[in-house]
UniProtKB/TrEMBL annotation:
This is Uncharacterized protein. InterPro entries: HSP_DnaJ_Cys-rich_dom_sf. SUPFAM superfamilies: DnaJ/Hsp40 cysteine-rich domain (SSF57938).
């Protein structure tokens, strides 16, 4: 949403209806999706298959989401490869569904193999599974908590999380819900206290 003023953006979806989409973007008041000529700043396309066929180079392309038949999930790698071959100097943000108990999207390792950045989202939690390129800080395997507000359009209270020290991330202690993390397996990461050095007194 923040990029549409600076880059050509395309949103491909398979569930969007005009009423549902209009209701959602009406809550995103921090930017206007309509330009000074009364035209949308991004292109919205309903697409259910053959996504790579209409990907254009040098654009930000968001595909929400790719659904393959259950007996063809292994093909997700080929689908991603086809999309990557078309983006040029642009980027493609590809959304996959994920089973609640799984650490990867449908297609599992095939979906992760060619990705430059792979994020998994669970209820109130995002994990950086894979980040190929980073600068001064390696974010791989880091976990962040978040709250979704404003009817599902805003991420708030983003903070680093750590595995619960009592249940070791399982959410269970002796067959019961972990009291410390309330069954989530994660707690908020405690920032190290800053050590202040007392000034030396010269007598």
């Amino acid at each position: 949403w923040e990029n549409m003023d600076n880059y050509p953006c395309v949103l491909m979806g398979n569930e969007y209806t005009p009423v549902k989409f209009k209701r959602r973007i009406s809550r995103m008041t921090w930017n206007n999706p309509i330009d000074e000529n009364g035209k949308p700043k991004f292109e919205l396309i309903r697409r259910l298959e053959n996504w790579a066929d209409i990907v254009e180079p040098d654009k930000i392309t968001i595909i929400d989401w790719i659904a393959l038949p259950a007996n063809e999930l292994y093909n997700i790698g080929h689908v991603i490869q086809g999309i990557q071959s078309k983006v040029g100097n642009g980027i493609a943000l590809i959304v996959l569904q994920k089973d609640e108990a799984s650490n990867l999207g449908r297609g599992r390792a095939f979906s992760e193999e060619l990705s430059s950045l792979y994020l998994t989202i669970d209820k109130g939690r995002m994990t950086v599974r894979k980040a190929k390129e980073w600068f001064t800080h390696d974010p791989n395997r880091e976990v962040y908590g978040f709250d979704i507000t404003n009817g599902g359009v805003e991420f708030n209270n983003i903070r680093p999380l750590a595995k619960c020290f009592d249940c070791k991330g399982s959410g269970q202690v002796k067959g019961n819900e972990c009291f410390t993390c309330h069954g989530t397996g994660y707690i908020e990461k405690i920032k190290p206290k800053e050590v202040t050095k007392e000034p030396e007194l010269d007598f």
